[in-house]
Amino acid sequence: MSQVQVQQNSLTKTKSSLPIVGFVAYSGTGKTTLIEQLITFLTERSYKVSVIKHTHHHFDIDKPGKDSYRHREAGASEVLMISDQRWVLMHELRQSSEPTIEQQLSMLSPCDLVIVEGFKNANIPKIELWRFEHDECAANPLKANQDNLIQALAYPGGIDAVNKPDLTRDIPVLDLNNIEEMAQQVLSIAGVLAK
Q1: CATH superfamily of 3-58+98-190
Q2: Cα–Cα distance measured from residue 126 to residue 106, given in angstroms and rounded to the nearest whole number
């Protein structure tokens, strides 16, 4: 890990005590599938992993007609639902701003690693995903060439791939299909010790 990466990790950790790494890529490049595979790989090795997922789409985990939905519609600012299997806190922003990444991290329970999907401009260490056959990837320059918080680049085949993007920075290049390699880099970037 370079001195710049260590400094960036230290900066990020002063804002949050939770080790964190984000994934940036165009829609359809496999972020969610990769994150799912990483979570499985890491939790099988006793890491406690949390995820922050940003979406640009309107979403609701509640259903019209349910008590909790009716409470929110009536004006409750928060509704906490609990069962013997899980709990969820729904907080209505109404006229408030979306919480910052630091505020979101403060809402999470202690864990070994936080994986972030969808906050491409967040001030956190990131890994960029790229695919030769993806139209937007092929038509646009790598974000890693402009964003120094992107600390690795991953694409199918990695350094041995036939089709490679034009990377102008000296950062690790990973094989997107090698989950063990990806997981090791995620842990390294986040500063998480091996178990």
Answers
A1: P-loop containing nucleotide triphosphate hydrolases (3.40.50.300)
A2: 19
CA distance 170 to 127: 13
Q: How many Cα neighbours within 13 Å face the side chain of 164?
A: 13
pTM: 0.81
Burial class (CB in 10 A: 0-12, 13-18, 19+), 152: buried
- pLDDT tens, position by position, 136-173: 999 999 999 999 999 999 999 999 999 999 999 999 99
Q: CA 39, 42, 43, 44 torsion: positive or negative?
A: positive
Q: Hey, what are 63's tokens?
A: 């259903």
Helices (H), 120-172: 135-139
Q: Quickly tell me which residue has 């290049």 as its tokens.
A: 173
- Distance CA(184)–CA(193), nearest Å, equals 10
Cβ count within 10 A of residue 35: 19
Q: Domain locations in the chain? A: 3-58+98-190
Helix axes 31-43, 179-190, angle to 10 degrees: 80
pLDDT tens digits, residue range 80-91? 788 888 887 877
